[in-house]
Amino acid sequence: MGSVPEELTLVPLHQRPELLEACAELLREEWGKSRASRLHTLQRSSDSFPACLLLLRSRGTAEAPCQLVGHVRLSRVAGRPHSLFVESVVVARALRGQGYGRRLMEATEQWARARGFGCLHLSTHDKQRFYAHLGFVLGQPVQSVAFLSPTIPAEVLRLFSTRAAADTTTATTTRSRLPPAPPSPLSPPAAPAPPTPPPNVIWARGVLAESNGHSLLETPHRDAKGLPIFWMKKDI
C-alpha cells in the first residue's frame, strides 16, 4: 500500500483556539520569552490584524488529528493600506529541511492576496537568501501597525499616509509667501555631472543580489541593538 498523502491547510489561530498552547511552545522554543508573554501576544490574533496563521498537516480523513507545522504573523503597514508586514515565521524543528518553510510562505501569500492585499514586507537578520529565492527583493524600512481596533485600522493608516503630503503642502505654502529672491549674478556654466556608475551586481548562491549600497551580503540598516537587518518586500 502507498503512503497516505498529506494535506496542508493555513488557518488563523483565533479559529483554532485549542492550538494556542502548542503555538506558544513553538514560538518559545525558537525565540524564548515566557509562556505567559507568548500566550498574551497570540490571544490578540483576529481578522482585524494582527493575524497569527498556522500551517497544519493532516493525513487521511478530515477526522485525523492535525500537526502544527509552522506559524506566521501578519500586521498592517503604516501608510500602505494594501500591504502587510510578515513576522514570527517559524517551522517546527523536527520538520525543517522538508520544504515546509516555502509552503508556509506560499500559503501566506495566497491568504493575503485573497483578502485584497498586494504586497508583503518583512525584515530579517540572516534569512535574506531564503526569502530572495521566494521572490522577495531588498526594500526600505516600513512601520508595522499592531493591535488596532476593528473600527479604526483604515483611519489610522490614512493618517499615516496623508501626513507627509500635508507637511509638503504647508511647506510649499510657506515658501510661496516669501518675497522672490533677487536674480543671481551670471556665472560660468557648471561642468556636466559625471555619469552614474552602473550598480554593482552580486550573485549569492544563484540569487541576484543587486547592490547600490546594499545587497544580500551587506545592508546599511541596523536594528535597535545595532545589528545588521535586511528589509525586503514582494508584490503578490
Question: Please, could you describe this protein's structure?
Answer:
The chain is α+β, with helices and mostly antiparallel strands and 236 residues long. The strands form 2 sheets. Strands 1, 2, 3, 4, 5, 6, 7 and 10 form an 8-stranded mixed β-sheet that branches. A two-stranded antiparallel sheet has the order 8-9. Helix 1 packs across helix 2. The longest helix has 24 residues. The chain is globular.
The count of helical stretches stands at: 5
Write the element-wise H/E pattern from the N-terminal end onward. Answer: EHHEEEHEHEEHEEE
Helix proportion: 25-40%
Intertermini distance: 40 Å
Characterize this entry briefly.
The protein is of the alpha+beta class and about 240 residues long. It has helices at about 20-30, 35-40, 100-115, 130-135, 155-175; strands at about 5-10, 50-60, 65-75, 80-90, 120-125, 135-140, 145, 200-205, 205-210, 230-235.
Show the helix and strand layout:
Layout: E1 6-12, H1 20-31, H2 35-42, E2 51-59, E3 67-77, E4 80-91, H3 100-114, E5 119-124, H4 128-133, E6 137-138, E7 144-145, H5 153-176, E8 201-204, E9 207-210, E10 230-235
Parallel strand pairs: 4-5
Antiparallel strand pairs: 1-2, 2-3, 3-4, 3-7, 5-10, 6-10, 8-9
What attributes characterize this protein structure?
236 residues, alpha+beta, two-stranded antiparallel sheet, globular
